[in-house]
Amino acid sequence: MHSRLLMVCWRRKLFFVGAALLFLLVLWFWGFLYTTHITENGGKIVSLRELMLGHTHGRHESLLHRLGFYETAANTGTAASRAGAPTYIGDTSQDSNGGVKFVKPTLFSAGSSDVARAGDWDTIMQDHQIEHEPKLGRGRADEASKVLRHISDEMRIAAERQSHYEHELKRMGVPVIAGIGPGGKPGPPAQRLVHFDLKGAPPKVSYLRRLLPILKTLGATGILLEYEDMFPYGGSLAPLAARNAYNRDELLQILKTAFALGLNVIPLVQTFGHLEYALKLNEFAHLREVDDSPQALCPSYNASMAFLEELLGQVIEYHTPADNENLLHREDIERLTPKLTHVHIGCDEVYRLAECSRCRHRLKDQLFLDHVYNVASLVRRRWPKLRIIIWDDMLRHISLDTLQASGIGPLVEPMIWVYTEDIYKFVQSATWEKYASVFGTAWAASAFKGAHGEGLLMPPIRRHLENTLRWLAVMQGEGNRFAHGLQGLALTGWQRYDHFAVLCELLPTALPSLAVCLSTAAKGYFDVSARTNPILSSLTCPEPNGEHHAWLELHKDSLMVTFSRCMFPGSMIYRFMLRLTTLVTEANEYIEDTKQRRGWLTDYNIRHNFSSAARVDDLLGENYRLLNSVSNLARNAASTLAEAYDHWTYGGEFIEQRIFPILEELKRLERAGDGLRKRRVWPQRPLPYLKPFEVLGIDEKT
Question: Which of 69, 195, 458, 509 fits 64 for a cystine, CB–CB 3.0-4.6 Å?
Fold first, then answer.
């Protein structure tokens, strides 16, 4: 009996050995997946979720990739390959701007629910059990089936979460961008800078100090201060300071607040182009590249470098605690140790270059690079620990060989700026490769205002958010090219397009846009949950009603209503701008309709004093209402804007630029209408020629 049993076991030894090995393999697979382990590159703990959803930028592939559920975009040949983003096998639909969306695996239902059908997963598990049961035996097959079912449940949960995220984005009007989501890697940029453009509508110091803690809460790590003529220059540079420039005590309060919050402060000092604020003055006009334009400095003039050294010296030394005893108390210096780590030397949009008699014999690119090298070398010589940032736009067309030969690679870090949705349209993949070959690191720059129209009153938040999201995707894909990666993202907020332009959207008006973009940059994706997204709490907004309440719909007018109920610093200005925007739109439509589409109050009628009194009465009824509304708004403007701005900004500039023209046009129509209604006798046709037409050679004798 025993001999027969041994014989049977011996004949089936291969079966038992195979079953035992397979069982051990399953146990090892279970332990590998459901316990965290240490990676080889830096000791990072990798969680189950990272294994499931992808740690593709390190040494670990995602579990979905191992099991064949998706390929990387590089393998599928899609536009997302530049970002190295995962794209599921199956549907490969693209968004309207060419970016590849996350789509469902082929296992998913194509139904309206956008989630995997439980039956699909059950079918897979049944097929697996039928296939392996004869080899393992019923008991062990059931155990292996439970393991794989648990794995499939985790995969389904992750897929459903991504599907819910995409559904909420679409409902809010936010684009779905490949690689950006709750499971996106490698995460948010290390540095998130908020840019303050002080060359237009400079905020009061009290307002800025209220704003900085909010920016810290939203995820800012530093501020980029572009002073232009608002810095308290002294000595030979004293004429540069505007009449309403910050004094040293006011500036000190801004810097103290930033340092106390742990925010890095980076001053931006233009050193080539956009020097209108200095070169417009008689004292510095001799430094211009061309006499008829104060836009750019002549780099071949020896006095130019002396001017820049003094300019940089005054700004940098004021921001260095060791050289400014008033910046912080000694105990604060020891505790907080604030240090000036970077300076931004501008160098963007140098439109007038190689035109003067001293420069025209030189190549433009070489002239530009030599000047950047000289300025950077000056900074490095006087402040050897400072890192130097420049704008990148003047470098994009320059060849790799020329850039490498210039010697600027070890000296500066380019800040690559694009404010539209299609970043690769302006900075192609070849440009990224070129930059990575020259520079060890770089920065990126998006915008939260001042990028889509010189005269806008309200920023288009959805466009700014999409610009931020697409920058996050680009940074994920291109950062690995650089030896030291990308440093971070600067969110720019331009107040003027240049020194001579009118004001763009005011800062309080753009604060909701800044909050949306900054919180997104700080998380690495746009958080669709009102409970975990810090926007509402940071801006002191009321909580949304209901779990499924559309708390932020960027494609609808409800967006304005959402933020109009908030109580953030400057919220009264925000609500004022909403009313002004509505009223200006209504007034402009009325004026255009009256003067262009209607036939009794046009410029022709007014010039010849020729119209119907009854018709004029009918048209002026709306004019009186609008004139009264605009007049009331103008009277309220000063008291409302005074929360954040001095009287030079709201009285001397904003009201004149934004409200006065509408007011004057409505008053002109009123006066013209009054004159037209008084007339009781009219001449025969044809009406006489106007005198000005004689200049064109047109008169009654023609």
Answer: 69
